[in-house]
Amino acid sequence: MQTLNILAAQWVAPTIDYFGLAPELVLAGGLCLVLMLDLFIDERKKWMLTAISSFTLLAAMVPVLMLALSETEVRTMFDGRYVVDNFSLVMKAVFLLAGYVVVLLSSSHIEQGEYWRGEYWFLLLTSLLGMLMMASSRDLVSIFVALEFLSIPAYMLAAWRKRDPKSNEAGVKYFLLGVFASAVMLYGMSLMYGVANSTLLTEIGAKFTATGEFSSVHALAVVFVVVGFAFKVSAVPFHTWAPDTYEGAPTPVTAFLSVASKAAGFVALVVLLYTAFPLAQDIWQPFIWVLSALTMTIGNVLALKQHNIVRMIAYSSISQGGFVLMPLAVAGLSGSGTTALRSVVLYMIIYAATNLGVFAIILAVSNKTRSGEVSSYGGLFSYAPALGVLMTLFLASLAGIPPFGGWIAKFVAFQSLIQSQSAWGYALAIVGAVNSVVAFGYYGNVMREIWMRPVPDNDTTAISVPGSLKLALVITAGATLVFGILPGVGLYFADLAEIAGAIIR
After folding, report:
1. What is the DSSP secondary-structure string of 308-328?
2. What span, in angstroms and rounded, lies between the C-alpha atoms of 186 and 178?
3. Which residues lie across from 75 on neighbouring strands?
4. Taking the CB of residue 453, how many other CB atoms lie within 10 A of it?
5. Cα atoms found within 13 Å of the Cα of residue 289, Cβ hemisphere only
6. 387 by DSSP, 3-state: which?
7. For the purposes of burial, counting CB atoms within 10 Å of the CB of 148, is it exposed (0-12), middle (13-18) or buried (19 or more)?
8. Predicted TM-score of the model (pTM)
9. What distance in Å separates the CA atoms of residue 75 and residue 136, rounded to the nearest whole number?
10. Helix/strand/coil percentages in the chain, nearest 5
11. For 144-179, what is each residue's pLDDT tens digit?
12. Distance from C-alpha of 266 to C-alpha of 283, rounded to nearest angstrom
């Protein structure tokens, strides 16, 4: 009894900064409200759930902006395990805005079929909450919890169409490979804890820096953790789940997985590399170099062979992930850390806007054609000129063609490689340049269908675009053009994203 009293006297309740947690609290309140209303309101009033979901995401943006304008630059909780810094705020804003666009894409789509809408919104908001947690997590345990918090709802979203065999297949494949990746990553984290005697990333990094020791166990831990996140971001050769999952899942869910979920994986990977593995660059740098080169090349080559546009965009997303990895391949070199972080953040921001725009067009066209084939885009400009122009804009951005947003993202990525002044950087820049040319092959194929091919079956009936989809197109097209024409806007937000406690600079 005396021992228990001593332990109780020593325990001190942690100080919680509720203002710092405000975005997460707003989102948590919104998803609880959606869950409760879904149980009690009439089916005819379920449209309210869509409005509440969108309002919740916009409401969560308010504290993000207030925190960004606050005089306190860094807020820490739970002994540094949960951090609100500029990097986390920028990424939270990206997740919330991407989630809002996904809600716009979903609002009319989910009404097709006899499925429970309430569970869709609940799962979507829950996954987004996990992403917000991921952006601030600075501890192995909190990172893993956040990762599972965002992943488990995503598994169910992929299989949301319960009577669709392809959707069931997508959910099962995503779940099985996702669980395997989590197991590999958890094993790596356990090794890391065993050698560092701490789960706090800054303490792990500080111990490695202080001792300068790096054993084979350290190397194995780093490799296992990086492999786990390579699955999450669908890097080659850990990409096999992505094409089938993207094709089988509902199109808004595919858009969500290809943008927000992938960005969350990159966020966790960046935080780990910059804070926990400062002296392990000899291990992770060549590994990420190989991952980047393989992901770009194989993703592009397989995309060239696709006739289904969703599968093509799936392989395109894999390839784009390789471009995001490019700066990280040289981040460990002296003086390259800040430039590499800037490049990764900028690329994720622009990629999110562009890829969501592509999926908005896919939704609009498929509502008319009921086909996912690239050939169904034949003559799109002749009967839906606005959609044809916008699809061309988004594809040109993904290809990195000025003056659309993708060009500045690729430019800064290549710039970080060149500024590293290393053979690693120069070689990867050559690989990236070749792949940029190859990528235009399949993007250009879709453009050719839109502008030069005849309309299939001469069906030139107009495409009815719901209002929510029009708003999504306005947001994504506007962002793509602004980032391309005014590159300083994107660079400003990328420069803000500094990780508190990062050892790599």
Report:
1. BHHHHHHHHHHHHHHHHHHHH
2. 12
3. 84
4. 17
5. 22
6. helix
7. middle
8. 0.92
9. 10
10. 75, 0, 20
11. 999 999 999 999 888 887 788 888 888 888 888 888
12. 18
